[in-house]
Amino acid sequence: MANCGCKDHINNNTEKENEASDSLTRYPDGSVKLRNPHIQLMDQDILYHIALGSESHDLIEMFGDVKFVCMGGTPKRMETFAHYIMEEIGYKLPTGTTLMDISQYSYRYSMYKVGPVISVSHGMGVASIGILLHEMIKLMYHAKAKEPIFIRIGTCGGLDLEPGTVVISDSVVDGLGNSFYSMPILGKIVKRPAILDKKLARELKALASVDDPYDTTVGTTMCAEDFYEGQGRIDGAFCDFTETDKMQYLEDLVKKGVKNIEMESLPFSALTHLAGIRAAIVCVTFLNRLKGDQVAAPKEVMNEYQERPQKLVARYIKKYLQSKGRLSSFDGHGSIAVKSPRRFKLVQQESQTFE
């Protein structure tokens, strides 16, 4: 029997599938293409929750040079990261200026831009980060940013890991062990694969230093939809299970390779994958869940822990920019650029309207 060349056939099919996927999510120049035909028909696309608009602001001028979108839970953490990455990549602000919260009029998220890096807060939980991801992906589309990389910088509960351990996610599951993001759309459940860029995870892990006074590991992350019962905690207002039940569940997660638990990885991995955007998640553990439920470390210790993922991500960004000859060679993008004063005022007013 002649050799059917099955391996070559599979490889060819995989390449064709990748090319087909790329054509759905990227234009030939590498800029982001939306999987939504309705956006192009709109007079203006208002990015309501970050107080920007496609016709009120010159988004190409403001964000066209963006390569990295880094997001984390709190406004303060991402402001701190913005200042940190500014020092690391040698970005200099014009004399007499300071870093500006670009989304200050939204009162929902905070966003800073440092050269080719955006630092933006995403709030807590699946719904909050999902809203931000829709608008950040659309922002990259309107800005014509080429092949942006999204990185979530977060905190988490570790499983059989020492507090302060850095965890790089290479896969994500929900509380039932499913590797997809499930949500009801028009009365039907839609399941979207939760897939991260494993190559990016390996590249980040390779930058962990033997001189770091903490461990950096790679593994599966569980995304919970709740901080208390959904993560098996017994210290919430309600609890219908025992300590023994909790420990059995957590130990089972460890056996399945789950390294940590947090609350945003599922939509983050699913929506970036759907958009064809390379993405990674780097978190630090605040506690070992096998030894307790409450975060009890002193504030100064917690602050130092939060710097650890930032350092690793900064190493990656710095190395990437060096390899491309872009370190300290910035062209002034990032200040507010207004297309239409009337629409600019309207967007601000609309974003400020909240109950």
Automatic annotation (TrEMBL):
Transmembrane segments: none annotated. SUPFAM superfamilies: Purine and uridine phosphorylases. Belongs to the PNP/UDP phosphorylase family. PANTHER family: FI09636P-RELATED, URIDINE PHOSPHORYLASE. Residues 67-318 form the Nucleoside phosphorylase domain. It comes from Hypothenemus hampei (Coffee berry borer). InterPro entries: Nucleoside_phosphorylase_d, Nucleoside_phosphorylase_sf, Uridine_phosphorylase_euk. Phosphate binds at residues 108, 152-155. Substrate binds at residues 231, 233. The lineage of its organism: Eukaryota, Metazoa, Ecdysozoa, Arthropoda, Hexapoda. This is Nucleoside phosphorylase domain-containing protein.
